[in-house]
Automatic annotation (TrEMBL):
Membrane topology: Multi-pass membrane protein
Localization terms from the record: Membrane
InterPro entries documented for this protein: MATE_euk, MATE_fam
Main location: membrane
GO terms, biological process: xenobiotic detoxification by transmembrane export across the plasma membrane
Pfam families: MatE
GO MF term (any one): antiporter activity
Organism domain of life: Eukaryota
UniProt cross-references to NCBIfam families, sorted A to Z: matE
Protein name: Protein DETOXIFICATION
Residues that span the membrane, as ranges: 31-56, 68-91, 111-129, 149-170, 177-198, 210-227, 248-269, 289-314, 326-348, 368-389, 401-425, 431-454
Length: 478
């Protein structure tokens, strides 16, 4: 506790001047972090896609039920757990930067305890998924199938929360390659497990949900074993500590706004798909909006990796007492996000006439998707910038500010604009997505303004106070 959190040598190296060599080094560092993070995020999310693909071969009704159950799972639980887990981006990241390595394990244990407890009432909600969907007016047969699928998904819920904690524990210490490897192993095995449980065991669509449970728990076990036995985690994991049972309230105070940041944004995108069902020709509009959302989610993994990388770097540098290095990291990744947005946007625009064929043979759908692709390209460009700025906010511990920004951007600007354009000006599904673009624009402007007005010295002091206040003598039990 008495060791300096900002060694004099580190303070001297954090001068005001930035030369080309520092920028190049920072770009390399960010890309090294972002690459495995993008890969592991894609591999983890593709598990749900693989399961639904296998269910699709069982018939239209099981496919509809599994798809609806998966969407319900994302909205009701996965987004919440991912958001709460992102509080560790701040706590573990700043502790690592301050060289308070043993506290990282304590923070992770607190998060694991809280997320597991939160998963219990969520599991109860999932038990009644079918009844909830039927009450909301969904087709009774599809709701019943979704309810069965969701109940078999319940073990995933607890594994998902633990996985969020383990991955953030590793990534905040710049140890990202093991996450990519474990996710790759899990994905490969998931293909085999799905085939066996869906087609060979007689479980049908229930087997796909069970395969998800097995695969997520396998990923958790692989990462837990790595943390337990790897020399790379020797300093940061020193065993279970009773201190994890204390100061839980401070974690919750950061975890709740973290969850709000994620949920408020994700729910707004899901809401426009629901609103599309109220438009004329709802079958076409819903299909195209679903394709658009799936496409946006796919390309989102790239800026998501960049946002996670900048969150790691900013939290590490602030914890180490290097505010100028934190500012440089934020600036570099914003430039990377803009570059990525331009490249991916150009590719999406050029492929606009072909992309719809991957989802449908209906010419009407293909043409509508082609019209949507340039809008999605702009959306991805804006999303990349906001993702990096949101990552900077998590690294600094601005989750509460970020929650208010997302609330205002999407629910005061975005959703009302979408409703106005779609239903008043009769622009249809395009209007819904343009409305979300308005929300994205407001979010980017607000976050960028906050970031540009940041006193980085003050943020470094706040990080030092946060780390110092959480550093206590540890009482290990294993």
């Amino acid at each position: 506790m008495e060791s300096p959190l900002m060694p004099s040598s580190e303070k001297k190296s954090d001068g005001d001047g930035v030369d080309g060599g520092q920028v190049v080094a920072e770009v390399k560092k960010q890309l090294f972090l972002a690459g495995p993070l993008i890969a592991s995020s894609l591999l983890q999310n593709i598990l749900r896609v693989i399961s639904i693909m296998f269910v699709g071969h069982l018939g239209e009704l099981p496919l509809s039920g599994a798809s609806m159950a998966t969407s319900f799972a994302v909205v009701s639980a996965f987004a919440l757990l991912m958001g709460m887990g992102s509080a560790l981006d701040t706590l573990c990241g700043q502790s690592f930067g301050a060289k308070q390595y043993s506290m990282m394990g304590v923070h992770m244990q607190r998060a694991m305890l809280v997320l597991t407890l939160v998963s219990v009432p969520l599991a109860v909600i999932w038990t009644y998924t079918g009844e909830i969907l039927a009450f909301l007016g969904q087709d009774p047969e599809v709701s019943a199938q979704a309810g069965i699928y969701a109940r078999w998904l319940i073990p995933v819920l607890f594994a998902y929360g633990l996985l969020q904690c383990l991955t953030r524990f590793l990534q905040t210490q710049n140890n990202v390659v093991p996450m990519m490897i474990s996710s790759g192993i899990t994905t490969l095995l998931h293909l085999l497990i799905c085939w066996l449980l869906v087609f060979k065991s007689g479980l049908g669509h229930k087997g796909a949900a069970l395969a998800m449970s097995i695969s997520y728990w396998l990923n958790v076990i692989l990462l837990a074993l790595y943390i337990k036995f790897s020399p790379a985690c020797k300093k940061t994991w020193t065993g279970f500590s009773l201190e994890a049972l204390h100061d839980i309230l401070n974690f919750i105070k950061l975890a709740i706004p973290s969850a709000c940041m994620v949920c408020l944004e994700l729910w707004s995108f899901e809401m426009i798909v629901l609103l599309s069902g109220l438009l004329p020709n709802p079958t076409l509009e819903t299909s195209v909006l679903s394709i658009s959302l799936n496409t946006a989610s796919l390309v989102f993994m790239i800026p998501f990796g960049l946002g996670t990388a900048v969150s790691i770097c900013v939290s590490n540098e602030l914890g180490a007492g290097r505010p100028n290095a934190a500012r440089l990291a934020a600036c570099v990744v914003v430039v990377l996000a803009v570059t990525e947005g331009l490249i991916v946007g150009a590719a999406m625009t050029l492929a606009r006439s072909l992309w719809g064929h991957a989802y449908s043979d209906e010419e009407e759908v293909v043409k509508y998707v082609a019209i949507m692709m340039p809008i999605l390209a702009i959306s991805n460009f804006m999303d990349g910038i906001q993702c990096v700025l949101s990552g900077t906010a998590r690294g600094c511990g601005w989750q509460k500010i970020g929650a208010f920004v997302n609330l205002g951007a999407y629910y005061i600007a975005g959703i009302p604009s979408a409703i106005l354009l779609a239903f008043v000006f009769k622009i249809g599904g395009k209007g819904l997505w343009i409305g979300i673009l308005c929300g994205l624009f407001v979010q980017v402007v607000l976050l960028l303004t906050i970031t540009l007005c940041t006193d980085w010295e003050k943020e470094a002091n706040k990080a030092r106070e946060r780390v110092h206040s959480s550093t206590v003598p540890l009482n290990h039990v294993s």
